[in-house]
Design goal:
18% strand, alpha+beta, 226 residues
Length: 226
């Protein structure tokens, strides 16, 4: 999915060292969980290939790498290591840590809640330089507004305001997911383009966002929407 919106400078992307001594690193749990599942998925695929073809596990693993577009186990390990290094970068990125810990919802402002899953930006041109990017965006709180058909089989819903503290408590404390509080366009763009995970977003930012604003109009509650 093409990204648009606030222009992020090279300086912002390179931001890594936290100058605020009150902030502590926040592990990029969503990225680390993806990497772990990705490695397990490759191992599982190799075992299936071995079982189906009776070749050695080493040969099956190589076939699994090739099926992904990689040339060797070395390239696969390099890819995973690069993803881990990027996750480490974000664990100490001041903007991300601030939004995950110190940033607060503003009094008398309304907020919407969203989430997105991290995934590789492309599987068709896989290489060690590939990045993790947020995909599968959805709203975490919506309300029913009707049906899209005469049979009343598909709901129409719209995003509704949420209590930021309740979302943070549920997803951070209970589910161990990162939830970012987003009060400006720059932070919203960083979450939307790089961080992924959960977010409570100030109303005006959602209204003016080229993609998130789609949930403010009635939508069919089907796959790809929530």
């Amino acid at each position: 999915m093409a990204k648009a919106g606030y222009a992020i400078t090279d300086l912002l992307l390179k931001e890594s060292k936290m100058e605020n001594s009150l902030l502590k690193p926040v592990p990029h749990y969503e990225a680390l969980r993806f990497i772990e599942k990705f490695e397990k998925k490759l191992k599982s695929k190799a075992r299936r290939i071995k079982s189906a073809t009776k070749i050695t596990l080493t040969e099956a693993s190589l076939q699994a790498y090739i099926d992904l577009g990689l040339k060797s186990r070395y390239q696969f390990n390099e890819l995973c290591e690069n993803l881990r290094q990027r996750a480490e970068h974000f664990s100490v990125q001041e903007s991300r840590v601030r939004c995950a810990t110190n940033e607060k919802a503003k009094p008398n402002e309304n907020y919407y809640a969203f989430s997105s899953k991290l995934d590789l930006e492309s599987y068709s041109t896989l290489s060690p330089e590939i990045l993790l990017v947020p995909k599968e965006f959805r709203t975490l709180r919506s309300k029913w507004v009707g049906y899209s058909d005469e049979d009343s089989s598909v709901e129409l819903r719209v995003a509704c305001f949420t209590d930021p503290e309740k979302i943070i408590d549920c997803h951070s404390a209970v589910l161990n997911n990162t939830v970012y509080v987003l009060n400006n366009e720059r932070d919203l763009t960083l979450w939307f383009t790089y961080w992924g995970g959960g977010a409570v977003v100030r109303e005006d930012l959602v209204v003016n966002h080229f993609y998130l604003s789609r949930w403010l109009k009635p939508y069919k509650n089907e796959s790809g929407w929530s």
